[in-house]
């Protein structure tokens, strides 16, 4: 019996109702499975006619369809036999190669029998793969190869060898590009077909990963040469799915140990595997392929993780954790291999995220993980143990401890998170004794423990609070450094404050264990020399820190009458009392379970929309409260007009112009009048129009609420975090400017509180580069506004509306990318640079144009210039707060300069993702320009000028020692401008400041000036302009370097004249 399908109707017609029911019975039982692969619908007509319609792909021409024989088997069950068609490659519309299969290509039902080929040797498999196999032959070949994966004596496709290499190469280069999409269809069509799973299992080996990486590298190279290689996406997806398990590394390790007999083979294969997976070959190859071909969307495609360095580091951490939890403690070969893997992981990119994954697993599994880590540490050498322990210290403090500003932290009560981190550190120090010695050095070393915040110091000292010897070592080492004259003179002030905190914390714990030790220490030469050197320092801040430490230690061992006491105002401040209360902090090494209370940084989702988590803040749901005022009219009842008054024609409303009223959105965003509603609107990421309106109204609302009630002060932290979190519409320049002005308004409203908050978020927050640039710009411009420079000095800094004709402007999205834009800070910094160099240029011009007697101007013009200058000075004086210099110095400049110096110093000791992003040259240039702007705002008459000069010179000295940063074309001009401004301010401050440049800071200034002079001699460092922007108004960096030399020579000449007793006219 047979049936024909005509070309016109594509209808399958059968004669005989009873016979047709028998024929279609097995087909109906498998109808669902077949429909998943090719939409096959079998419907029964109204008059006993049965229809069968084949749903085929568009563009497929069936010129002739043969008969489909229907036979009856010996079991009496009717069987439908479908002839297989040939698999042919085709070019799709996008230029890719795919497969076009008809319904007969695959038998997907259990009731439909398809004869499959069987293989007896790998040679037959290789021949069939080279012959472009049909789907059933390929499925059988993959099943045979999967079965060989467990062979110990015979052929094993996972064991390195000539035949296995040829098969793997054939699978990767020929089968994978042509059959990858087909495997997905088969996988969905039938649960019994495991072709894709078998392929992934066969390629899950060292040779398989190497072949996939090499194929991907070749396809990327072909793309660069202009060839549209279609295998890229399939290769990346296959590679990601082969590796996308937590037991992947363990499986590779077990395969190497089980199927490769000799130690040499095992060692070479493992080294090759570590080099490919951890050494960066996979990550760099996939990253280049995704970036070049755009074949995957990193945000939407789940297989794009293999090209993301952050997710890749976490994946490796998860695999190492799985190994540590499932390995046998007695297997020395596995432990040796794991130790080699972990050593390589600590040197990879994003190693901090790898350590974070280990720490999270440690907290989850606790005791099991402790034993594994002890066994792992035992197989490391001492340098490797210290390196891994350093990563653990830094990551644990950054992950689980709240990062606060060094100057505003006032909390000394017990903290569960501090106790949890202390327990973590204590567990590692108990593994090996020399790790305790390393912890002592880490706590007292600049750029490491001293670069952390107060909670990190509390946790690290609490970890050894019960060990008297370790506490005494910490106290003795920190006291020696704290009282050293060179340390007082050349160390950044923030590091000296951190060292004072270490001394007070260690003193308190040691006094509880053995008070006699503190008594003997207070009478030692180290303590006495520390107090005397601190009091003899010329820096007021150094003196205050010495008085605080001396008084605090004296109060522990002496009665109140005999204790050391300094009757100064500085000792009665809240900051001094907080320092002395550190001796009474009582943190204990608690349980690791305390760290589960919050979400660590490493477990936050990676997304483009990063959120800033503020302690104590909570989400405020968006509300639709309208603040519009409804006008009420009183209608008269007079019957003077009995007629009907016609309605006026309403104004046209573009938002209500749609013919379909159901499509009109009548809930329009309105401008908010309360801060809490503004915060809610800024968090409405799914409503772009609401966010855009909130950004436009935020600056004005914040400034109105600044001096009105406590509404702004109660919500300003949440408001600042919401402004940093805004992602909707940030491609528009107008929205960027509105956010910037809103942050400026926040800082101006509460400068002492918000300036340290923004600076802390800049260095510690999980921000993008654009967000960090906005933060540092807001800090610099808000300082200018507080100093009264928000009129003429900022003209041109903030963009104005452009009146360019519409046809000559790009669309908003393209304009933000291609239109030349100048940074706000760059504009202000250029003005400062020109104003600093202008007097020298005018003086040089005067010498060329003759004596001053020949330069005449009218008396009225001179009076007009003087009058305008006095008016500007008086206007600025009215805007300046009383404590402006102290505010800008402590809350702005010292906070920013000290944190930057710590980052620069710490970059030599540790390398992490955060360090790399903070020292990015364009971003570092903005930070240096912010320093320049704040310093120029303070001016030459600031009482803190000696301290500001000292901190600036220390930071510049550290920076110029890192040649890769200092000689960068973006960084060098900003560095030289800051140095020139420091010299100019001290010269303008008077004779005492000039002499201080020689007597106190002469060594540092001379080093920097000679370095700048050497750059001019070389002349090939940073190119002709001061920045990478290439603006017409930029000053060549060689001119700035020459100006530095002229200023320094002027200072030296005047100092020598005064030493010789010459008058100013003789200089």
From TrEMBL:
GO terms for biological process: 'de novo' cotranslational protein folding. Residues 673-783 form the Telomere length regulation protein conserved domain. It holds the Pfam family Telomere_reg-2. Signal peptide: none annotated. GO terms for cellular component: cytosol. Residues 38-59, 640-664 are annotated as: Disordered. Residues 40-52 have a biased composition (Polar residues). One of its GO terms (molecular function) is telomeric DNA binding. InterPro entries: TEL2_C_sf (IPR038528), TEL2_Regulation (IPR051970), Telomere_length_regulation_dom (IPR019337). Belongs to the TEL2 family. This is Telomere length regulation protein conserved domain-containing protein. It comes from Phaeomoniella chlamydospora (Phaeoacremonium chlamydosporum).
């Amino acid at each position: 019996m047979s049936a024909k399908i005509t070309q016109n109707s594509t209808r399958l017609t059968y004669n005989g109702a009873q016979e047709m029911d028998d024929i279609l019975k097995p087909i109906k039982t498998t109808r669902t499975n077949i429909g998943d692969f090719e939409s096959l619908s079998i419907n029964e007509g109204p008059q006993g006619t049965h229809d069968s319609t084949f749903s085929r792909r568009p563009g497929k021409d069936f010129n002739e369809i043969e008969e489909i024989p229907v036979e009856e088997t010996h079991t009496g069950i009717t069987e439908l036999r479908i002839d297989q068609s040939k698999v042919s490659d085709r070019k799709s519309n996008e230029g890719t190669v795919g497969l076009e299969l008809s319904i007969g290509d695959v038998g997907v039902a259990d009731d439909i029998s398809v004869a499959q080929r069987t293989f007896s040797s790998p040679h037959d498999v290789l021949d069939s793969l080279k012959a472009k196999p049909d789907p059933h032959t390929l499925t059988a070949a993959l099943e045979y190869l999967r079965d060989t994966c467990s062979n110990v004596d015979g052929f094993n496709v996972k064991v390195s060898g000539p035949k296995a290499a040829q098969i793997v190469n054939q699978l990767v280069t020929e089968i994978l590009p042509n059959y990858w999409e087909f495997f997905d269809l088969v996988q969905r069509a039938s649960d019994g077909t495991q072709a894709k799973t078998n392929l992934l299992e066969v390629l899950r080996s060292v040779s398989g990963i190497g072949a996939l990486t090499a194929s991907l590298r070749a396809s990327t190279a072909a793309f660069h040469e202009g060839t549209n290689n279609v295998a890229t996406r399939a290769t990346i997806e296959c590679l990601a799915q082969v590796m996308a398990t937590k037991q992947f590394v363990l499986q590779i390790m077990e395969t190497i140990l089980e199927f490769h007999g000799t130690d040499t083979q095992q060692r070479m294969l493992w080294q090759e595997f570590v080099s490919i997976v951890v050494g960066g070959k996979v990550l760099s190859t996939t990253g280049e392929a995704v970036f070049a071909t755009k074949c995957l969307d990193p945000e939407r495609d789940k297989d794009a993780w293999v090209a993301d360095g952050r997710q890749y580091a976490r994946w490796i951490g998860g695999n190492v954790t799985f190994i540590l939890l499932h390995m046998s403690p007695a297997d020395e070969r596995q432990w040796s291999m794991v130790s080699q893997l972990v050593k390589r992981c600590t040197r990879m990119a994003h190693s901090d995220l790898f350590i974070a994954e280990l720490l999270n697993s440690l907290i989850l599994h606790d005791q099991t993980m402790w034993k594994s880590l002890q066994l792992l540490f035992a197989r490391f050498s001492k340098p490797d143990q210290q390196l891994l322990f350093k990563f653990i210290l830094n990551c644990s403090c950054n992950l689980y401890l709240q990062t606060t500003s060094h100057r505003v932290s006032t909390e000394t009560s017990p903290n569960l998170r501090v106790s949890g981190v202390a327990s973590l550190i204590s567990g590692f120090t108990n593994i090996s004794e020399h790790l305790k010695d390393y912890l002592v050095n880490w706590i007292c070393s600049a750029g490491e423990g001293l670069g952390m915040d107060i909670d990190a110091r509390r946790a690290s000292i609490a970890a050894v609070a019960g060990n008297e010897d370790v506490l005494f070592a910490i106290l003795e080492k920190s006291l020696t450094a704290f009282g050293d004259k060179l340390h007082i003179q050349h160390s950044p002030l923030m590091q000296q404050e951190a060292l004072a905190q270490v001394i007070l914390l260690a003193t308190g714990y040691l006094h509880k264990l053995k008070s006699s030790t503190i008594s003997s220490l207070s009478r030692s030469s180290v303590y006495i020399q520390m107090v005397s050197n601190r009091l003899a320092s010329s820096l007021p801040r150094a003196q205050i820190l010495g008085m605080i430490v001396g008084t605090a230690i004296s109060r522990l061992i002496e009665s109140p009458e005999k204790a050391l006491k300094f009757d100064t105002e500085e000792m009665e401040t809240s900051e001094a009392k907080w320092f002395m209360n550190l001796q009474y902090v009582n943190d204990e090494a608690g349980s690791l379970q305390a760290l589960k209370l919050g979400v660590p940084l490493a477990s936050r989702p990676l997304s483009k929309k990063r959120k800033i988590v503020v302690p104590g803040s909570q989400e405020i749901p968006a509300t639709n409260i309208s603040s519009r005022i409804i006008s009420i009219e009183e209608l008269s009842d007079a019957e003077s007009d009995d007629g009907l008054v016609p309605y006026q024609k309403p104004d046209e409303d573009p938002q209500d112009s749609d013919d379909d009223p159901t499509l009109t959105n009548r809930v329009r965003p309105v401008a908010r009048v309360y801060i809490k509603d503004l915060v809610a609107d800024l968090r409405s990421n799914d409503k772009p129009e609401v966010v855009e309106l909130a950004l436009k109204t935020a600056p004005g609302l914040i400034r109105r609420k600044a001096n009105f009630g406590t509404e702004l002060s109660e919500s300003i932290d949440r408001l600042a975090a919401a402004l940093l979190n805004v992602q909707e519409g940030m491609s528009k320049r107008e929205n960027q400017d509105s956010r910037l002005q809103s942050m400026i308004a926040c800082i101006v409203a509460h400068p002492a509180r918000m300036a340290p908050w923004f600076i802390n978020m800049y260095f510690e927050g999980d921000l993008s580069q654009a967000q960090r640039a906005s933060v540092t710009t807001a800090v610099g411009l808000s300082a200018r506004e507080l100093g009264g420079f928000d009129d003429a000095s900022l003209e041109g800094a903030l963009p104005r509306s452009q009146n360019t004709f519409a046809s000559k402007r790009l669309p908003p999205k393209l304009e933000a990318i291609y239109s030349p834009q100048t940074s706000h800070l760059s504009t202000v910094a250029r003005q400062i640079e020109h104003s600093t160099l202008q007097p020298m240029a005018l003086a040089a011009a005067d010498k060329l144009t003759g004596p001053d007697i020949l330069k005449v101007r009218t008396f009225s013009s001179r009076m007009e210039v003087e009058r305008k200058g006095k008016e500007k000075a008086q206007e600025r004086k009215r805007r300046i707060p009383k404590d402006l210099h102290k505010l800008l110095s402590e809350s702005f400049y010292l906070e920013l300069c000290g944190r930057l110096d710590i980052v620069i110093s710490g970059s030599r000791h540790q390398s992490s993702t955060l360090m790399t992003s903070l020292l990015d040259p364009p971003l570092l240039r903005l930070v240096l320009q912010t320093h320049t702007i704040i310093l120029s705002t303070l001016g030459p008459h600031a009482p803190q000028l000696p301290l500001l000069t000292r901190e600036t010179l220390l930071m510049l000295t550290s920076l110029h020692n890192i040649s890769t940063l200092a000689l960068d074309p973006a960084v060098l001009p900003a560095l030289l401008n800051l140095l020139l401004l420091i010299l100019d301010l001290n010269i303008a401050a008077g004779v005492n400041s000039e002499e201080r440049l020689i007597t106190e800071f002469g060594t540092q200034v001379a080093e920097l000036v000679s370095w700048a002079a050497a750059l001019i001699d070389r002349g090939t460092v940073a190119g002709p302009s001061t920045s990478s922007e290439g603006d017409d108004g930029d000053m060549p960096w060689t001119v700035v370097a020459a100006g530095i030399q002229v200023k320094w020579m002027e200072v030296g000449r005047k100092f020598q004249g005064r030493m010789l007793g010459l008058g100013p006219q003789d200089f």
